[in-house]
Design a protein that fits this description.
Elements (H helix, E strand, L loop, with lengths): L3 E9 L7 H21 L5 E5 L1 H10 L1 H12 L3 E3 L14 H19 L5 E2 L10 H7 L4 E5 H6 L11 E5 L2 E8 L1 H6 L5 H11 L7 E7 L9 H7 L2 H11 L4 E3 L2 H7 L14 H6 L3 H16 L3 H4 L10 H4 L1 H23 L6 H6 L17 H22 L5 H5 L7 E6 L8 E6 L2 E6 L5 E7 L4 E2 L59 E5 L5 H5 L15 E7 L2 E14 L2 E14 L4 E10 L5 E11 L10 E4 L14 E13 L4 E22 L6 E17 L4 E11 L9
Parallel strand pairs: 1-2, 1-8, 1-9, 2-3, 4-5, 5-7
Antiparallel strand pairs: 6-7, 10-11, 11-12, 12-13, 13-14, 15-20, 16-17, 17-18, 18-19, 19-25, 20-24, 21-22, 22-23, 23-24, 23-25
Helix pairs in contact: 1-3, 2-3, 16-18
Length: 730
């Protein structure tokens, strides 16, 4: 008699930093209904994974849910898969953290459900060959990888109904192939189609298994799925059909299958993830071309070609988005500090916060927000700053008895230069008990990170506006997906909707990263809108160009001098010009003092406008009432941080967020004009393509009329103040 097993592995996760109502909605619409369905259908057996981010929320908000899960486990209906606790991309984090996070999840599963998990869910199914060794060392027996990786090494469809052994340096792990056929049909196609496919693949061999591994959110959270899966009963109908066909179709726990049946063989997989992730990791234009070409070949029935079309790698997100790379390299730097502190003191060195900061969500971008979500970025940096502060407090603690007596009044700061972000250029990193400030002399002498230790917050967690493949749907028809089957409800991988029909007007791409302390020279008469829309022209070659630098250390004070000799292009003349800027930082102070000197070293007079650009993320999107501007003596028409404005002759402006407890005051001497506007990306999300706030941009403007040899000076002071009460103009 023909027979086939069905292995169902469902992964459930919400990122750290997501809003509490999002957790609750996902619980009510996806996680709880699935458990209720399993209780109703005891013959349905499957493997479940819950990330530590979600587990922590469940333990606090719905501990009864874990009790119900435990009951399903005790009757052998459910097995709990392990994983790295806070859902990091495993190849992206150091091995010590891999082992530590896997062990933390294993400890939880053992404590709560009474057994050590044998299987592991890979975050975003990102696989690299060296993982076999570290997984085996962690006690992992099996995991799942998408079948595209198996096909890439020459296997056919008929070879994908079992598991394989792979190894690294003699350390072995079992690997199940996740069926793309099932991933694209469950729950998108009619139940009858799914059962018919399984019936077609059933055989007399007796040990075939078809494997679905996918997100639990597709059963209730993805657009249209709550109504489809639960209100219209897709899941209930599916489970009913599975129970009715148990004579030839049986659900089985993957761990049980791995123990009962032998592997299909040994193989070595390439770097992998699911198909869409690899496509997303490509540059925007290449991603669009690749998707078009692949779908065209599929429509022509050229699977003999598409089987070997394997392009993209998760690590390319670190190239595609320099902001992700800098966050990642910050994480690696904090890792080194935490483990250094652990050699000194076995107490709280920030390890837990480091692991939380490794949660994968802001380290990539696909069909959902990822790095585009300012709140998620801010949360990740918050954990990084917390971990670094704890580690530094141990590393810099006094060793002598005399130092310990005066410890409470001891402030410190230090600096180092080196290739922080792996781009071949030196960065300048300044750390202290009150702050961290990171500078890139090679990128216009700009500042790309300013951490406030007391607030555990990076003020410069920003993102530049850049092309995305899905932007093409705003300017041209999207490629049609032709699979030969019609979905009952569209998958998020197929569904690209335009939520904000005005988005095309805001499709602007930045010419440089949205750092701070960026120097501009404008023609007189340049407008705010031109600058915001990147339709203006620079008179100079200072933006993004290398500056020389020196550092002077005196007592608790650090002075950083940056300078560049460049060219202003005015009236078709190339006029030599010089910019010097000095940054003064004092240990223990949440303050940055910047002194500018600009000098005309040409033989002609120069008329221009000098601009100093600063980009600050205080979570001011959506007209957040907690986030505000304030200008002494001026009643602003709109005080929100996502407002626009052009102010003349001002000395001071304040930015704040009451929820964060941060108020940042800028003082300019002499008085300046000021542009302000929100930097908003056009981003895809569950709801469709829409504008999304990234940061607030401020540009201080100083008119220049300099004769040959003429010099202009001005000073900017950024000061973190105690949070003030709302004023009348707010």
């Amino acid at each position: 008699m023909k027979q086939i097993y069905l292995g169902l592995a469902i992964h459930n996760h919400q990122p750290l930093g997501n809003f509490p109502w999002v957790f609750e909605e996902a619980y009510q619409q996806a996680y709880l209904p699935m458990v209720e369905a399993l209780e109703k259908y005891p013959a349905i057996r499957l493997s479940l994974h819950y990330s530590g981010c979600l587990i922590d929320w469940l333990e606090q908000s719905h501990p009864e849910f874990l009790d119900r899960l435990a009951a399903l486990v005790s009757r052998k209906q459910v097995e709990i898969m392990g994983g790295a606790y806070y859902e990091p991309i495993l190849p992206a984090i150091p091995d010590a953290d891999k082992l530590g996070q896997i062990a933390k999840m294993s400890t939880f599963v053992n404590r709560r459900f009474g057994f050590k998990p044998a299987g592991l869910w890979l975050a975003e199914r990102v696989w690299e060959p060296h993982l076999a060794k570290i997984l085996a060392e962690a006690g992992v027996e099996w995991t799942l990888v998408d079948d595209i990786a198996f096909r890439a090494v020459g296997l056919d469809d008929k070879d994908l109904f079992g598991y394989y052994i792979t190894e690294e340096q003699g350390y072995s792990v079992k690997v199940f192939p996740i069926s793309k056929q099932l991933r694209y049909s469950i729950p998108w196609h009619d139940v009858e189609e799914v059962i018919a496919y399984l019936d077609k693949e059933a055989s007399d061999r007796g040990n075939k298994i078809a494997i679905l591994g996918d997100d639990g959110e597709k059963f209730g959270i993805w657009p249209g799925t709550y109504e489809y899966c639960w209100q219209k009963g897709w899941v209930e109908k599916f489970f009913t059909e599975l129970e009715a066909n148990q004579d030839w179709l049986q659900t089985i726990l993957l761990g049980e299958y791995a123990c009962r049946f032998l592997p299909l063989g040994r193989l070595y997989l390439p770097c992998a993830s699911y198909d869409e992730m690899l496509e997303w990791s490509l540059p925007a234009d290449k991603s669009w071309e690749y998707i078009n070409l692949k779908r065209q070949l599929e429509a022509e029935g050229r699977q003999n070609i598409t089987q070997f079309m394997y392009s993209g790698i998760w690590r390319n997100f670190l190239v595609k988005y320099p902001e992700i790379n800098r966050m990642h390299k910050k994480m690696l730097r904090v890792h080194q500090k935490v483990y250094q502190a652990r050699t000194i003191n076995k107490g709280d060195c920030g390890l837990e916060e480091l692991w939380k900061a490794q949660c994968n969500c802001p380290y990539w971008h696909g069909v959902f927000g990822g790095i585009y979500l300012a709140d998620i970025r801010a949360t990740t940096y918050s954990y990084l700053v917390q971990a670094e502060s704890k580690a530094d407090s141990i590393i810099h603690q006094p060793r002598s008895w005399l130092g310990k007596i005066f410890r409470s009044s001891r402030s410190w700061r230090e600096w180092q230069k080196g290739d922080f972000d792996g781009d071949g250029n030196e960065e300048l990193l300044v750390d202290g008990d009150a702050f961290s400030v990171y500078l890139s002399p090679a990128e216009g002498g700009s500042i790309f990170e300013w951490d406030l230790r007391r607030h555990s917050y990076n003020l410069y967690s920003t993102l530049a506006r850049r092309p995305e493949a899905y932007h093409r749907v705003l300017t041209e028809p999207p490629p049609e997906k032709q699979t030969g089957e019609k979905s009952a409800v569209p998958s998020i991988h197929d569904l690209i909707r335009v939520k904000d029909k005005d988005s095309l007007r805001y499709l602007v791409y930045d010419k440089y990263l949205r750092s701070s302390l960026i120097d501009h020279f404008f023609s007189p008469g340049t407008k705010l809108e031109e600058f915001a829309n990147q339709s203006y022209s620079e008179l100079d070659n200072f933006v993004g160009k290398p500056y020389k630098f020196s550092v002077e250390k005196k007592g608790n004070e650090l002075k950083i001098l940056l300078w560049r000799s460049g060219i202003l292009r005015i009236s078709q003349k190339n006029l030599p010009f010089e910019v010097q800027k000095e940054i003064r930082l004092v240990a223990g102070e949440e303050k940055m003092d910047i002194s500018y000197q600009v000098k005309n070293i040409s033989g002609s007079s120069i008329q221009a406008v000098f601009g100093s650009e600063w980009n600050v993320n205080l979570l001011g999107g959506g007209h957040n009432e907690q986030a505000y501007y304030r200008v002494p003596g001026i009643t602003l028409d709109d005080y929100h941080l996502d407002s626009w404005g052009d102010l003349a002759d001002i000395e001071q402006i304040t930015l704040g967020n009451r929820h964060l407890g941060i108020e940042l005051e800028l003082t300019a001497m002499p008085r300046v004009s000021l542009w302000r506007f929100p930097v908003e990306s056009v981003s895809n999300s569950e709801g469709g393509i829409e504008r999304i706030y990234q940061e607030s941009c401020l540009v201080m403007l100083l008119p220049l009329d300099l004769p040959p040899g003429g010099v202009a000076k001005f000073n900017l002071v950024w000061q973190v103040n105690p949070l003030g009460a709302a004023k009348d103009n707010m």
